């Protein structure tokens, strides 16, 4: 399997995102620390989905919380996507289960939150696997990662400044 792996101390999350965008990479970026696992899925440098292993930080958690679909419905959409060789997200949008704008906002929010979390880690590792999962092929959601990364860094910096002021 093609890809790269390493430590965030050698290649930061912001550098990784820029590398993926500039080189129009397709695949999955896994970023882990001792207690947290984050993932970002890209096609030709565009973000398709961001998620985490932690409960409440997964795409499906947001879909269920907002009442668009239950766990069984999500599993069925994934199964349908595999059978049709296309994105389960596209299937949910086409079937009008949820609006495309909700998906875009949710993916942006998850990506931004994941990046902010990673920026706060003292150490961590990453692995980029250059293989796009079948269940996300032909996704209608393809977001630019640079603005999302910029916003995450800006918000992280604001948070750190606020914490420093509170400590004084």
Helix-strand pattern, N to C?
EHEEEHHHHEEH
CA distance, first residue to last residue: 50 Å
Largest sheet: 6 strands, antiparallel
* Strand order within the widest beta sheet: 1-5-2-3-4-6
Oligomeric state of the chains present here:
single chain
Number of domains: 1
Average predicted local confidence, pLDDT? 91
Overall body shape: globular
Count of separate DSSP helical elements: 6
Rg, nearest Å: 16 Å
Helix proportion range: 40-55%
Task: Give structural attributes.
168 residues, globular, 6 helices, six-stranded antiparallel β-sheet, alpha+beta
Give a structural overview.
- This protein has a 6-stranded antiparallel beta sheet.
- The model has no long low-confidence stretch (mean pLDDT 91).
- It has one domain.
- The chain is globular and about 55 Å long.
- Helix 1 (13-22) runs antiparallel to helix 6 (145-167) and helix 3 packs across helix 4.
- It is an alpha+beta fold and 168 residues long.
- It is built from 6 helices and 6 strands.
- It has helices at 13-22, 59-65, 71-84, 88-94, 100-119, 145-167, and strands spanning 3-7, 27-32, 37-43, 46-52, 125-129, 143-144.
- Helices cover 48% and strands 19% of the residues.
Précis, in short:
The protein is an alpha+beta fold and 168 residues long. Helix content is 48%, strand content 19%. It has one domain.
Protein topology:
Layout: E1 3-7, H1 13-22, E2 27-32, E3 37-43, E4 46-52, H2 59-65, H3 71-84, H4 88-94, H5 100-119, E5 125-129, E6 143-144, H6 145-167
Antiparallel strand pairs: 1-5, 2-3, 2-5, 3-4, 4-6
Helix pairs in contact: 1-6, 3-4, 5-6
């Amino acid at each position: 399997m093609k890809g790269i792996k390493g430590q965030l101390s050698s290649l930061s999350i912001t550098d990784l995102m820029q590398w993926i965008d500039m080189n129009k990479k397709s695949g999955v970026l896994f970023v882990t620390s001792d207690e947290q696992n984050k993932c970002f899925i890209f096609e030709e440098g565009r973000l398709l989905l961001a998620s985490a292993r932690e409960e409440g930080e997964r795409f499906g958690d947001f879909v269920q919380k907002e009442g668009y679909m239950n766990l069984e419905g999500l599993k069925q959409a994934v199964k349908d996507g595999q059978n049709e060789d296309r994105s389960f997200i596209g299937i949910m949008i086409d079937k009008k289960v949820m609006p495309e704008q909700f998906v875009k906002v949710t993916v942006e929010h998850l990506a931004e939150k994941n990046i902010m979390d990673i920026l706060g880690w003292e150490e961590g590792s990453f692995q980029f696997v250059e293989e796009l999962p079948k269940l996300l092929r032909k996704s209608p959601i393809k977001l630019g990662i640079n603005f999302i990364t910029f916003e995450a860094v800006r918000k992280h910096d604001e948070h750190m400044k606020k914490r420093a002021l509170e400590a004084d």
